[in-house]
């Protein structure tokens, strides 16, 4: 009987360790003040559920009036104590959301800090989060850092940065520096604020890990390649993001097309003056073509001082900030984006593949991804998303090019860790047709790390994976290594292993050969092809696929 009791007690202790219900803070830790002095003034935060929250802190001057389309300028000091109990305005974007957020304004360069309420005086590592949204949407308030701060005993910073035409417009005469990359420069300004001030919130400026998903992941890669960002961070996490960028010529063409659509034409000075005089709403209304679609939207611009090389080139040639890296993607990144092919016949699917790859390469692709191998009634979507996922033609995201990108990082940085989020049925926010299997689509891992989605996790196994991922991410922020006690060991990619993240206790390290086999990388690495530059709905229309 005693042995049974001891075994049950040991099992309970192991379960509590896995769930990490209580923040691993020493008993001697004490509450810290909710009033904190920054270099621009004092802020007063709030406390809830073991976390101190300091919201809506300006890290740069409002980019309004003459500061519209200028690099971020220093914020002004404020007198007295500034309340930091509510989020700042979201940066202007076309997607209005459900109306429950803090509203939109060009005065949006704010950040939020989450700290454990009880901690020792030893500085804590910092997770600096850059939101996704295609560089055209999203905001820091969508990501509550309380859970990670509390359970992992780290400081979390979330930010806003300029989006769409306000953050990435490039035109002659727009500004002396930064045209096309104002949003990227905003991120760097927020990092500099963090370097100057995070110690006052209990953070360690020498242990800042930048992290982002989707466009936030693209941003992390761009920051790794940006000379002005050197020394602003000590680690990086890229979730479902790659290293795409535009050339200055591409950005200028895009900018000129936008100016025309906005009703501004003529000499450069006239165009710039015309755009500066327009209200926010009118600029947003003219931005549909600028923000584009999934593959024709906004990206950072290379060939300029803040980004001299295309990030993909910088990674390939080793001219990046060499810091520990955690990188990965979801198993079925693009499946939902392939829904325009839901009604595709075999002939229409094959026509789309020939349009994308050309007649010679298309035959080989179709031999590896035959229409007949996929379940109906959505065979067209499953087939084309499978080859898109494996080939990484969406900005190099997921699949074989993503594995190759990770190998390029790992060749120079031994502390590179690779994962694939493999929950076969995670909850998603997207509305999909009846009977359609979304798999593990883009962004479906976010709910496992951030509280805004965790309530949607349906099973105990998914909730255990969620806690395991929080602990893995926290361990990486703290130790530049995701391996943590009580969970499956996570070897570096140099060891030839990656982590397959699965519900329950089934996550495991698998060989890179398993990943390559699952994505048919021996085939994709043997042929030459480019990233897809046509959005799925347009390609489907070109192939004659009827809309649903």
From TrEMBL:
The keyword Chaperone does not apply. Keywords: Hydrolase, Signal. Its EC number is 3.1.1.-. SUPFAM superfamilies: alpha/beta-Hydrolases (SSF53474). It is an enzyme of class 3 (hydrolase). Residues 1-29 form the signal peptide. Residues 34-524 form the Carboxylesterase type B domain. Belongs to the type-B carboxylesterase/lipase family. This is Carboxylic ester hydrolase.
């Amino acid at each position: 009987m005693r042995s049974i009791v001891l075994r049950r007690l040991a099992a309970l202790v192991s379960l509590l360790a896995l769930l990490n219900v209580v923040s691993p803070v020493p008993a001697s830790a004490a509450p810290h003040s909710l009033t904190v002095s920054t270099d621009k003034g004092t802020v007063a935060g709030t406390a809830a559920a073991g976390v101190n929250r300091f919201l809506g802190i300006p890290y740069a001057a409002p980019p309004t009036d003459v500061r519209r389309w200028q690099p971020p300028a220093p914020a002004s000091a404020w007198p007295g104590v500034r309340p930091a109990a509510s989020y700042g305005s979201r940066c202007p974007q076309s997607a209005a959301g459900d109306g429950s957020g803090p509203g939109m304004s060009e005065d949006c360069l704010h950040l939020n800090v989450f700290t454990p309420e009880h901690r020792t005086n030893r500085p804590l590592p910092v997770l600096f989060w850059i939101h996704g949204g295609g560089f055209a949407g999203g905001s820091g308030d969508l990501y509550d850092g309380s859970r990670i701060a509390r359970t992992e005993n780290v400081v979390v910073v979330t930010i806003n940065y300029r989006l769409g035409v306000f953050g990435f417009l490039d035109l002659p005469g727009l500004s002396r520096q930064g045209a096309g990359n104002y949003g990227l420069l905003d991120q760097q300004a927020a990092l500099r604020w963090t370097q100057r001030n995070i110690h006052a919130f209990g953070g360690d400026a020498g242990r800042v890990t930048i992290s982002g998903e989707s466009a936030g992941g693209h941003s992390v890669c761009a920051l790794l390649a940006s000379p002005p960002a050197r020394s602003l961070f000590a680690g990086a996490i890229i979730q479902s993001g790659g290293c795409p960028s535009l050339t200055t010529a591409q950005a200028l063409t895009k900018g000129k097309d936008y100016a025309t659509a906005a009703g501004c034409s003529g000499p450069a000075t006239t165009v710039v003056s015309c755009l500066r005089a327009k209200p926010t709403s009118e600029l947003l209304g003219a931005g549909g073509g600028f923000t584009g679609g999934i593959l024709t939207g906004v990206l950072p611009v290379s060939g300029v001082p803040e980004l001299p090389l295309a990030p993909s080139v910088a990674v390939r040639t080793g001219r990046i900030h060499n810091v520990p890296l955690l990188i990965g993607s979801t198993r079925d990144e693009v499946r939902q984006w392939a829904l325009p092919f839901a009604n595709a016949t075999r002939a229409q699917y094959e026509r789309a593949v020939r349009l994308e790859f050309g007649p010679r390469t298309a035959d080989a692709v179709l031999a590896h991804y035959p229409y007949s191998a996929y379940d109906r009634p959505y065979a067209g979507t499953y087939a084309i998303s499978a080859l898109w996922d494996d080939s990484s033609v969406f900005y190099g995201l997921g699949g074989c090019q993503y594995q190759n990108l990770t190998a390029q990082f790992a060749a120079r940085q031994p502390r590179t860790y690779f994962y694939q989020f493999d929950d076969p049925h995670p909850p998603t926010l997207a509305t999909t047709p009846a009977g359609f299997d979304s798999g593990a689509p883009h962004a479906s891992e976010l709910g496992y790390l951030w509280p805004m989605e965790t309530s949607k996790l349906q099973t105990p196994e998914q909730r255990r994976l969620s806690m395991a991922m929080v602990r893995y991410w926290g361990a990486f922020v703290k130790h530049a290594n995701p391996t943590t006690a009580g969970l499956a060991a996570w070897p570096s990619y140099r060891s030839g292993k990656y982590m397959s993240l699965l519900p329950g206790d089934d996550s495991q390290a698998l060989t890179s050969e398993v990943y390559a086999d699952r994505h048919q990388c021996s085939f994709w690495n043997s042929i030459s092809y480019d990233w897809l530059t046509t959005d799925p709905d347009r390609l489907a229309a070109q192939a004659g696929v009827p809309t649903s």
